[in-house]
Amino acid sequence: MRELTHWAGIIFGAAILSFGINNFIIQNQLAEGGFFGISLLLLYWFKIEFGVSFLILNIPLFYVGYRIFGGKFLIKTFAGVALVSVFSLLIPENLVPSIPDDKLLAALYGGVVNGIGLGLILRFGATTGGSDIIARIANSKWGYSVGRTLFIIDIFVISIVAVLQGAMVAMYSLVALFIAAKVIDVVIEGVSSSKSAMIISELTEDIANAIHDKLERGTTLLKGRGGYTGQEKDVLYCVVSREEILRVQEIVHDIDPHAFVIVANVHDVLGEGFSPLARKIP
């Protein structure tokens, strides 16, 4: 049942991504990074269907990826590429009216829709090949950062877009890329609704007791040592909701105004008081 859910998510994501590319990117003559961008340029300049060129460009990478990562990697990667290619050929390009006079709006909507689609594909264990495969190969063979490799490929393709399609198209396309990246993070990781706090104080036990009593949240005392003074002291760590972090700061200030507090966003907080642990296990 779980595997069926994953495949349904991949298919749904591929359909959404193809809808976004056809109706917001292609309709408004925008571009993308990576192999999506190369396929779009082939469409604009040589009238080669996006789905056809995208599939053909990925075929050599399927072979290389299979040799390095094995058949399990190939199955879902091929599925992601094939589904996007097929849906991009089947979904019409006029389901949403074009907005040639407001390419920024097209880039914003395209980024959101594409981010949702690609986020679903990645969340359920597939990829869309292309740059992803190259980045993984570079990481496996030479230790290059996956994120840095993807960034370099995107910048290279967008630079070609700027030369062939104009600087304005390239800039609007960068907006779509940026929005899509943010939406992908939200789809994969969820909206961050929790905060963590690390509190360094001489009164950590008093602060911990106040958090237990007033917020009914658990805390953890970690052993720390000052890098400059060498002095041993406790470090208090706790995770609370976004709404409760201000109350934590108030508690700390009331007990020890000289305390040092570090607040950070956290994702996927699992366990008592937050999301059930079993729900997040794939």
UniProtKB/TrEMBL annotation:
<feature type="transmembrane region" description="Helical">
    <location>
        <begin position="7"/>
        <end position="26"/>
    </location>
</feature>
<dbReference type="InterPro" id="IPR015867">
    <property type="entry name" value="N-reg_PII/ATP_PRibTrfase_C"/>
</dbReference>
<feature type="domain" description="DUF2179">
    <location>
        <begin position="217"/>
        <end position="271"/>
    </location>
</feature>
<dbReference type="Pfam" id="PF02588">
    <property type="entry name" value="YitT_membrane"/>
</dbReference>
<dbReference type="GO" id="GO:0005886">
    <property type="term" value="C:plasma membrane"/>
</dbReference>
<keyword id="KW-1003">Cell membrane</keyword>
<keyword id="KW-0812">Transmembrane</keyword>
<dbReference type="Pfam" id="PF10035">
    <property type="entry name" value="DUF2179"/>
</dbReference>
<feature type="transmembrane region" description="Helical">
    <location>
        <begin position="146"/>
        <end position="164"/>
    </location>
</feature>
<keyword id="KW-0472">Membrane</keyword>
<feature type="transmembrane region" description="Helical">
    <location>
        <begin position="73"/>
        <end position="92"/>
    </location>
</feature>
<protein>
    <submittedName>
        <fullName>Membrane protein</fullName>
    </submittedName>
</protein>
<feature type="transmembrane region" description="Helical">
    <location>
        <begin position="38"/>
        <end position="66"/>
    </location>
</feature>
<feature type="transmembrane region" description="Helical">
    <location>
        <begin position="104"/>
        <end position="125"/>
    </location>
</feature>
<keyword id="KW-1133">Transmembrane helix</keyword>
<dbReference type="InterPro" id="IPR019264">
    <property type="entry name" value="DUF2179"/>
</dbReference>
<dbReference type="InterPro" id="IPR051461">
    <property type="entry name" value="UPF0750_membrane"/>
</dbReference>
<dbReference type="InterPro" id="IPR003740">
    <property type="entry name" value="YitT"/>
</dbReference>
